Amino acid sequence: MIENFPLEKIVEPLLQWFQGNARTLPWREAPTPYRVWVSEIMLQQTRVEAVKPYFERFLLALPDVGALAQCQEEKLLKLWEGLGYYNRVRNMQAAAQQVMEKYEGKLPADYEQLLKLKGIGHYTAGAIASIAYGIPVPAVDGNVLRVITRVSADRSDIMKQSFRTKTEQALQKIIPKNHASAFNQSLMELGATVCLPNGAPLCEKCPWQEFCETKKQNLWAEIPVKTKAKPRKIEEKTVFIIRDGEKIVLRKRPAKGLLAGMYELPNTSGHLSEKEAVIWAKEQNLSPIRIQKLEPAKHIFSHVEWHMTGYVVRVDELSEEKGNMLFVETAESQERYPIPAAFGAYMKYLV
Fold it and tell me: 24, 132, 273, 343: least buried by Cβ within 10 Å?
């Protein structure tokens, strides 16, 4: 159990290990508060390697809090396109506007004040405070929960907020006041590169191997304990690539809900037959000439899965926009309009 384990012994071996094993990551090169913030939000539910090019592009386009606060929504969503969970970047913009209004454009060097910003929780506040400002507060994410429960052989459910709070309190007592940034980053690094989430941990590379209780008892397959998530809801959809010679059809999604405000390929519920797909197109006041059935595709969100089938529908000239449909030049569709990765399997049919 974490309360019975002498956590203070993890500090020195961990810091020494981190000096020789820290990965070179773009946000570590100049860990300003803004860069740390952007990277931590991007890294939520997204792999490090996937984030790197997005981080560089985002910082080039929006180099500071002021630029983020003022960015037009379509440009903002386009910069985020492919990362998913778009509320993350909407919350970032709302927080940037708060920072401009209350803190003169500079993220506050105060853990409690950071927590008051839109979309910033305990982990992100801890990461910004410790990495950018050197404030000795913990930053507890899934990697940290995994390494701490394993070194102490704690079988508590890491999905419970009460255990996360207990872990934060325990780490607060041992975090080195002059090395808060290195300590928090090294815990995350150990979980990301050695004490792995899927598959066996690389114990021979771990600085804690001599006193790790999970290694001693060979419990790595049982710890951490994690409540299983509810099964995702399955939704069947038919997706349409509707085009004439030069234009394609896009729709803008509602301002609230899943993928709010994004542009999408027209779609409808259920898996339509070819005949039903033609009828659907005619009901949209379109004049289909040819129809081609496409391969099925699947996209997984956190709580729902889309199981899709698709059609390319060639129509007469797209001249007069109908309802919420937009007629867009093919070349413009991917450059200007933020289209979610959910439709990625069908994007090749737009060119």
Answer: 24
